[in-house]
Amino acid sequence: MSAITAIALFSFLLVPFVWSQTVTYIPGELPLILSVPHGGALKPVEFPDRHYGCFIDNECVFEQDCTPQSSSCKVSTLKDAFTRDIGMAVSDFIFRETELHPYVVINELHRIKLDANREINEVTLNNPNAIAAFNEYNQRVEEAINSINARALFIDIHGQTHPENWVELGYRLSSNELNTGTLPKEKCSIRRLQEDSCGSNVTCSYLYISGQHSLGAYLESTSEEYSVVPSPENESPGSGNYFAGGYNTDTYGSDMLGVTDAIQVEIPRPIRFSEDGFDRNLFAEQLGKSLLEFLEDNGYLGDSPCSFDIQERATSSPSVSRCW
Fold first, then answer.
1. What CATH number is associated with residue 203?
2. Fewest Cβ atoms nearer than 10 Å: which of 3, 50, 109, 214?
3. pLDDT, tens digit, for every residue of 259-303?
4. Within a 13 Å sphere around the CA of 191, how many CA atoms are in the beta-carbon half?
5. Are 28 and 102 in contact (CB under 8 A)?
6. 52, part of any domain
């Protein structure tokens, strides 16, 4: 057995794979968290099906015994197909390249039972099982953040069916803000990266959203097949459809100057539904490659000369278990 193989096996054995009825959690060694809130398939009868809310006193109320009366309180119950597969494939690719794991948190419940990217009062219908599942999902994310205890990147993986078929990267900035180039840092889910890299230089911020240091730039550089927004090629969505990021990106992003940056990744249907799975597996590898470059080039690995060279790391410090 080679030294590299031995270290890879040792690293794998050190990483427990935690599975419950509702959440799969894989601890990691990189300052990267992959979240998959809408990819689950389980529909246990102990969890009520989610339904439209009731419009009461000019606000939406979501309760089990509420009879839906208004389309003003719609909910989405469709799963983001194949996002679980993509999330795991990204994790597997990163491990193959670095012998280090990202953190992974997956909601295993179908979206009709739990939406792990909304406020708790909207998604649980006050059902104790759903409340416990929602809390477990978020506790696992918080566990990952606390374990890293340093600058980190949270990636929320989703699927969308917009006709533009582009990959949408959400930073909690609206279409209008991207279109006009205002880019308010106090709203942005990667504010920590912007502050650390740009300081008071306001014009520098765009580099990390649609410029040469953005995730969109790295992802577009992997293949001419991908249109990504925002990116150097597509700085804003214009009049096109665009998801800016939801509850998870808002909750775990650094707009309040925390240490964890967050980006929502919305994958178009053609990539996810490729007939033989080739396109989605290729996309997962290229997203994984882009994330590694984004981490390394934008300082998430600290002062560590992290070249992802396992042989070199094994020779210099065999006890190293984290790469930042």
1. 3.40.630.40
2. 3
3. 999 999 999 999 999 888 899 999 999 999 999 999 999 999 875
4. 18
5. yes
6. no
